[in-house]
Amino acid sequence: MSATASLPSQDAGTTTSSIRPEGPFSLGATRSSVMRWAPVARYGHDDGPLVLGAIADDDLAPLAITAAQERPDGPVTVTTTGTGSPERALAQAARILSLDHSGAGLAGVAERDPAVGRVLAAHPGRRPILFPSVYEAAAWAVISPRIGKARAATVTRRLAAEHGTRLGGVGCFPTPEALLRLDVVPGLPEEKVRRLHGVARATLDGELDVDRLRDLGPQGARASLRRVRGIGEFWGSGIWLRACGVVDEWPDEPLATAALARLHGRDPADYTDPTVLAAATAPLAPYRMWIAFLLRMANA
Description:
It is an enzyme of class 3 (hydrolase). The protein is of the alpha+beta class. The chain contains 13 helices and 6 strands.
């Protein structure tokens, strides 16, 4: 793999906006999540603004996102640098940081489920951090199986450094066009390279457009994602939940379910019954996905 990273576009524009969170939000807690989650851990650092790279939803070009917050629950200053629509870039940044939904109802969840309420109190303002884009989530989905998170993170970091764009002080993942130009990716077998090409083509064809997937809904989006070579049931669900900004759906995720069962003083085997699990998670609406994420992070 040669060092052929593309240069930032000369017509990239920078826009600064402010997002006022509804309900609790801590960028410091988000930073902690970034540092602990392999797909985005390369963006983690201990202090200063949070700087993320992404492939933009609208023009599929590199996008740099910088977020800063002076105090928990206060306004979040978001600066985006890219070639696409500033409004779309801001919406993408909000989705990545889970600032696109109100968290004001979490207090009601704490009242309905005091055990979960104690976890919320211990992790104030922690919201899910999402994949920067559906495209990057799908790329991770075909890179990571059978090689482990650490090796997958190394591969994606190297791809960004050698074939991506450095923009706004951050290295972005290669664009779909750049990915299609790669015949070999060190650390990956030929089949995974072919699958990465399939992800790139699906992205260019609009199949991984986040608005399209949202319009399809949970089952339609999953079915559509599974049509991409190398993406099966597990990652079809994972991309839907962790890239599209889903808030109120309990994942088919044994670790989160076991954590909830233990929190409720139950045997995890009890919650393998769909009826029992549905009753246990009902009080967590409309934040079931957020609570699942929180329990995973609290028990990591």
